[in-house]
Amino acid sequence: MDALLVKDLIQEACIAILKIGAPVLLIGLLVGFVISLIQALTQVQEMTISFVPKLIAILATIVFASSYMSTTLMKFTHKVYNQITVQPHEGQ
């Protein structure tokens, strides 16, 4: 494996990680922002109020985006497996 192939593989792995994690992180960020805005407007500063809506939103995002996430991960895995070459032993 040469350095260019490793660099490309690491770059594609980072892109795949971003594609898989971005929907969940963005929804969590958005719901957290909305809940904190509501808490600031109503002056209710209870920390547990934001936990349940974020948990529900993140779980719903995982359920709805799971096919996209698994497809992205399978494409990356197939690409990695296709780049694996079997080297013959030197003694043979």
Give the tags:
83% helix, mainly alpha, 92 residues, elongated
Question: Could you give a short description of this structure?
Answer:
The protein has 92 residues and is mainly alpha-helical. The protein has helices spanning 3-42, 48-83. It contains 2 helices and no strands.
Account of the 3D structure:
- The chain has helices at residues 3-42, 48-83.
- By secondary structure, the protein is mainly α.
- α1 packs antiparallel against α2 (48-83).
- The radius of gyration is 21 Å and the shape is elongated.
- The two termini are 21 Å apart.
User: Residue share in helices?
Assistant: over 70%
The tally of strands reads 0
Q: What would the average pLDDT be, to the nearest integer?
A: 88
Could you tell me the strand content as a percent range? under 5%
How many H/I helices?
A: 2
Q: What is Rg?
A: 21 Å
The span between the termini is 21 Å
Report the structural category: mainly alpha
Query: What is the element string, with H for helices and E for strands?
Result: HH
Principal-axis shape equals elongated
Uncertain ranges? none
What about the largest sheet? none
